[in-house]
Design brief:
The structure is a homodimer of 309-residue chains. Chain A has 309 residues and is an alpha/beta fold. Chain A folds into 2 domains: 152 residues, 2-keto-3-deoxy-galactonokinase, substrate binding domain (Nucleotidyltransferase, domain 5, 2-Layer Sandwich); 108 residues, 2-keto-3-deoxy-galactonokinase, C-terminal domain (Nucleotidyltransferase, domain 5), CATH 3.30.420.310. Chain A contains 9 helices and 14 strands. Chain A has a 6-stranded mixed β-sheet with strand order 3-2-1-4-7-6, with helices on both faces. In chain A, strands 12-11-10-13-14 form a 5-stranded mixed β-sheet, sandwiched between helices. In chain A, α5 crosses α7. At the A-B interface, β12, α4, α6 and α7 of A face β12, α4, α6 and α7 of B.
């Protein structure tokens, strides 16, 4: 299979690359532990060159398309946000190109920005738009709710193939901060407890108002001290409480598609089931598929209409 | 004025002592920066002896009553919680005494525990019960809502002189963790901004459900990046959002008494005004008055019925 594109998903804490054929098939995926934060000298070009050197030696100067925080102001080069509603074509038109000595022209996907409007707040995403483009295509859908859980969970409504509106929940970030930097840290660890997570979901369901979360957190402390909650279950209970609060707020009985790695997908599926919502899981190759779709829409992939080589 | 009691309010991060007369008048207040956490060798007796040595030299072996976390399992000696409803007499009966070589008998106020029951969750307080006993007395009241804001804010309902039910909000603890240990830390500082705090209260009023807080937090990040919120106002906005969420949850139009230091009292009064609730502020000597009332109820203060010396 001849290669036609290198797709790169480069975030703060991860770096994934995929060598793809002209039809979008993944020839070889690659992942490295060093995200943007690990590139201390900010020599992103050298880092990426090293990662894809053998691919380029074998297949020549392939087009490269990067998505994720690498295109943020704090990344390699800023690819300004495009506005909602955003679909494949509008995102592809907003790609930013950078000519580099060692890699030739490198393309960067823009993030998506939502302006303040009725019922929605100013919000931004970067990287998720590419995953959603890919997930939509692989599901053969043009509408739906897509959920990208994590440090900053995104709930994204897609209508007629376009990212229409979204909301970001700081669930993972808040979880880590509360677990390690509040009084809860004294009775909490990273053990996984199914029962603890379920207890947290129960707590989320019982929340009575917008400020109740601040009160229920302290119960985790009291319960751990008094033995009403196994100390090895408090971390999972906190996770269940926060994910449950997020799920209850957003799911509202409507099915959604999870774009997430295994462990997180499992927690969100469990929470969805608890709140009686259907959750599908998108294939893990959504980002690469999105990169390929954007590259194709931008005319970066050579059409192979002639006889196959 | 002859001394009759040494009251000690000893928490994790503070140590305050008061030399008091038989009628409860404060002869001399004293405060030290070293809370329990600063007593690395856990030699609490030596620390307290040093603090009150000159008082004892002058006035003899006065009774000493300590309140606060010093009576917790992790403190000097555990004074087990007494149950709600808790009033002066029940709390006084639960004092725990410790005989010490250098200070004689030292008494410790118990905390108060609320069991799980209809509409209330298992919860505990330690130190606040003594402040409330004092604040009630100084206000000449037997009923009301008392609010003790801070790391772990307490909302305490008093009926007929007894602590009847309460709820703890982790507002201050959550504020510090989010401010310093999430993505918000990159666009946040400790500046005080009246406008920022007010913006946070606006955000709290607009919260739409139990999980909405997790989403609105991210707006602080977006707004700071986009210039919709002065970076010097984001800390105050976060404070306003959290205090507002707490206030909105609990105040429900009902007047309350704040037992708090100046800076916090000011923020909570402003939030109360915003939510159209009347907030009074208790005198700063509530803890000392509470210690004196408990000591008197426990018979630790010599009655001076004879001719005055």
């Amino acid at each position: 299979m001849s290669a036609a594109l290198i797709g790169v998903d480069w975030g703060t804490t991860h770096l994934r690359a995929a060598l793809m054929a002209a039809d979008g098939a993944i020839i070889e995926p690659r992942r490295m532990p060093d995200g943007l934060r690990a590139v201390a000298d900010r020599n992103f070009e050298r880092r990426l060159s090293a990662l894809v050197a053998d691919w380029r030696a074998l297949h020549g100067p392939l087009p490269i398309l990067c998505s994720g925080m690498v295109g943020a102001r704090t990344g390699w080069i800023e690819a300004p946000y495009c506005a909602t509603p955003a679909h494949v074509q509008t995102i592809a038109e907003a790609l930013v190109a950078l000519d580099t000595p060692s890699l030739g022209r490198v393309h960067f996907a823009p993030g998506v920005r939502q302006g303040e409007h009725a019922g929605a707040h100013a919000d931004v995403m970067r990287g998720e738009e590419t995953q959603i483009v890919g997930a939509l295509d692989m599901a053969g859908e043009r509408n739906g709710m897509f959920v990208l859980p994590g440090t900053h969970s995104k709930w994204v409504e897609v209508e007629d193939g376009a990212i229409r509106r979204f909301a970001t929940f700081m669930t993972g970030d808040v979880y880590a901060a509360l677990k390690d930097h509040t009084i809860l840290s004294f009775t909490m660890n990273d053990s996984w407890s199914e029962a603890g997570f379920h207890r947290g979901l129960d707590m989320a369901r019982a929340l009575e108002g917008p400020g109740d979360l601040l009160a229920r957190l302290f119960w985790l402390r009291v319960a751990a001290l008094e033995g009403a909650l196994d100390p090895n279950a408090t971390g999972s209970a906190l996770s269940g409480l926060l994910i449950g609060a997020e799920m209850r707020q957003m799911a509202q009985g409507r099915a959604f598609t999870l774009v997430a790695g295994d462990a997180l997908a499992q927690r969100y599926r469990q929470a969805a089931k608890y709140f009686d919502v259907e959750a599908r899981v998108a294939p893990p190759t959504s980002a690469a598929r999105g990169q390929w779709l954007l590259a194709r829409a931008a005319g970066l992939i050579a059409r192979r209409d002639g006889p196959k080589s």
